[in-house]
Every structure is written in C-alpha cells, then in structure tokens.
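Justification of computing resources. Each target in the renewal requires a structure prediction run like the one illustrated here; the chain below, 226 residues long, is used simply to show the kind of job we budget for.
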Amino acid sequence: MGAADSLEEMGMGNHYSLHNDNTSTCSGSSSSTLIFTYGTLKHGFSNHTLLQDMMASGDAAFLGLCRTANQLPLVCGPYRVPFLLNFHGRGHPVSGELYSVSPRALARMDDLEGVTRGHYDRLPIRVVLIHEEEEEEEEEDHDPLPIEAEAYYAHSTYAEALWKRNGEKGYHCYSEKEAKGYVKRKDRPQHLSFLDQIQLFLSSPSPPPPDLHPIAAAGVATTASK
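Resulting structure tokens:
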C-alpha cells in the first residue's frame, strides 16, 4: 500500500483539510493535524525519537514521503539547525515527511519547536505525496493534488535576516550532507538561549568553514571571555 492509498483508506484524500476528524489515525483523539517535517524530526535524525514515542502511544502516524507544492527556502542556522522560511516562490520544492498527529502530540511538537518562545511559527503549508516508482509511471499524466498541512517555519522576526545570511540560497532537502556539523541541544552552550544563538549566527561572517560553524566559534569566544 502506497502513501496515497493510506490517506484514502483513512478518509483523508488529497483534499484533506486541517483538523478534520480522524479517529482511525491517532487513538484517543477526535481530531488530528497533518504535519510536514523537513529537518531533525525526520527518520534518521536526532529528534525523530519524539515522533517514535508518539507513534508508539498512538498519538502520531507516518503517512509518507512528500515535498512542498511550492518553492520555499530551506536553510541552516546556528549549529546546522534547519529552518523553512515562509517566502513562497523563493528556494526550491522541499522534500520531507508527512505525519498525522493528535492534539496531545501537537502540543509536544509545539514545545520542541519553541512556538511560544519565538523560535518557530506553525503555519499552513501545501504538500504533495512522493509516490512509489510504479505509481508515478501509472499517473505520469496527472499532476498530484496538494494536501493541506502545517509546518514549523522560522519565526518571522528573523526569517529575512536568516535568508540573507545564507546568501539567499536554499536546499532541496535536509540530508546527512546538510546536517553535517549539527550539534544537539544538550551539547550547545547552556548560558545562551536559542534566540541568542540565532543572533550570534546572523552577526557572524558568511559563509562558515565546513569544519567549524561560526556559532560554535562565537560560543567558545564568549565562554573564554568570562
């Protein structure tokens, strides 16, 4: 069964709208939200353990691989943390994963992404499923219909500066190559808030050398001066 079949079986289809009733996806939930993940929440990356826990409890379900229906900038910030920017028409179609999550799971994801702390904004996004090869061959004459979901974008207060800091160039996908140099939260300077780390990154020289991210150097310098 492909991802499209999974959506149809759960009554979603390509015109599924946010917050529709979906008791078959997340147990104990009368409504669920489709979330597009593009960074460290994906399979194989450091924060995917959160989704694994939520899937084990019935609060989340993996629906398939997908990409954004529109071009959007995907860039990296301090410590190679990925950010999607809400600038439609810039960048590239971005690849990621689609999940259905319960209200309880959504609250945990909002906390991880710092929605109330000005780190990320959770906003609507349109995505299309990436079908299996044989499905693509069968449907090559048909444009895939977009699915309405939500995603965590870089907060609007620093998004434009982050785009300029990256030379107004984005990625198609946050892969192992783009994630090289990523530093987990527990290993970052604990005396700096995430917004402090972002501001240091924005004020550092561009581009950073591949083996030393500028925010790491800034953190070392700040610590040494105390």
